[in-house]
Amino acid sequence: MSQDSVAILAAVLVPVATAAVGALGLVLKDWREGRAYAGRRRPPFEDAARQVSFAVEWWQARQTISSPSEDLDEARTRALAWLEEASALVTQTAPAPGVSVRRLLLLAPPLHDRLAKVIRLGFYLSVAVMVFFSAEATAAALGGSSAGDVSWTYVWSAVFGALSLILRYAAVATEAR
Fold first, then answer.
1. What is the full per-residue pLDDT of the chain (177 aa) written as tens digits?
2. Neighbours of 174 (CB within 10 A)
3. Helix, strand, coil abundance in the chain, percent, nearest 5
4. What gap in Å lies between CA 127 and CA 122, rounded to an integer?
5. Closest of 128, 118, 155, 125 to residue 140, by C-alpha
6. Residue 153: C-alpha distances to residues 90, 127, 143, 156 (Å)
7. Which segments cross the bilayer (predicted)?
């Protein structure tokens, strides 16, 4: 490889690698938060399940032992109170985390507006064209094409990159209205 090819390759790969590492960091953070949320949510559910099974077994035992209806009414009230406590224990857990960063980066949260979905499709197409032009420009530069051809290919890549940003904003704004 010539000195120019190495310089071009380094100039292209450094920002791409930086963006990839940053996105990977966000995805790992998202994954870790999801696991932490699942870990915080599991114990209250297990406690509630134990309370419900105890209430059911206690109620069945109470029905077989007690005969007066007053005792059964009091037992029913107590069992219902235990079930309400179990339900409150589950609903007191922290709310689910919002949309993941990975889905936000890819404009993949669920969109309900039809126009927003169409704009998202345009966003994906624009990103694909931008990546194609970037790869084409890099291949042309490494292949020894003229500087003008390479420059114009990068210009088109930048145009489609800007269009991608505009379409992403438009999709989010359309969904928010």
1. 567 766 777 677 777 777 777 777 767 777 777 777 666 677 777 888 888 888 888 778 877 776 677 677 777 788 888 888 887 877 776 555 566 666 666 667 777 889 988 998 998 899 899 888 888 888 887 787 777 777 888 888 888 888 988 888 888 888 888
2. 17
3. 85, 0, 15
4. 9
5. 155
6. 57, 15, 14, 5
7. 6-28, 121-142, 154-171
Rounded to whole angstroms, the Cα distance separating 144 from 119 reads 37
pTM above 0.85, yes or no: no
The structural domains of the chain, with segments of one domain joined by +, span 1-100, 107-177
Distance of CA 63 to the CA centre of its chain: 49
Query: CA torsion sign, 119 to 121 to 124 to 125?
Result: negative
Distance of alpha carbon 10 from alpha carbon 14, whole angstroms: 6
C-alpha 134/C-alpha 43 separation (Å) is: 49
- The Cβ of residue 150 has, within 10 Å, a number of other Cβ atoms equal to 20
Structure tokens at 100: 């993941």
Judge contact between 38 and 93, C-beta under 8 A.
no
**Is the dihedral angle over the CA atoms 157, 159, 161, 163 positive or is it negative?**
negative
